[in-house]
Write a structure and sequence with these properties.
Strands 2-1-3-4-5 form a five-stranded mixed β-sheet, sandwiched between helices. The protein is globular. α1 packs parallel to α6. 44% of the residues lie in helices and 19% in strands. The chain is an alpha/beta fold and 167 residues long. The protein is built from six helices and five strands. α2 links the parallel β1 and β2.
Length: 167
Amino acid sequence: MSLDVFPADVLEDASRLIDALRARRRLLAAAESCTGGLVAGAITAIAGSSDVFFGGFVTYADEAKSGMIGVDAELIREHGAVSEAVAHAMADGVIRKTGVDLAVSITGIAGPGGGSPHKPVGLVYIGVASVFDAPRVERHTFGEIGRDEVRLASLRAALRMLRESAA
């Protein structure tokens, strides 16, 4: 039985990421908020992903970000859960918690509600931390394209960032 959960391009990107990680003998983990585990799902949809994928944290609530991966609650209060600072702290927290080589974090507002003029629906921060390179965070403004589309766009962006970091 095959589950056609992800578009073909996403599965192809996940497969390329797995190949790159395997070639460099690197281990990956994820911390996801607005994507709710889509990165982990896309990667584990590929046979053999256990060679390079440690696991993931779905840290949807602020308390999960703090309790599960050690994001400072004061940082969340100061910057908001959807911020560059929190995306950075989430990725770093995954590295510290798991000891993996590479980590990705995603935090954003998928909608349809929850946005504000300062942080609109479709705003997503994606962080990548690595024991080999400097961490980085990208800010994406996907707009009000629909909840599923924001989440899918975030997944695609995260896989791209991971492939770049794994190269």
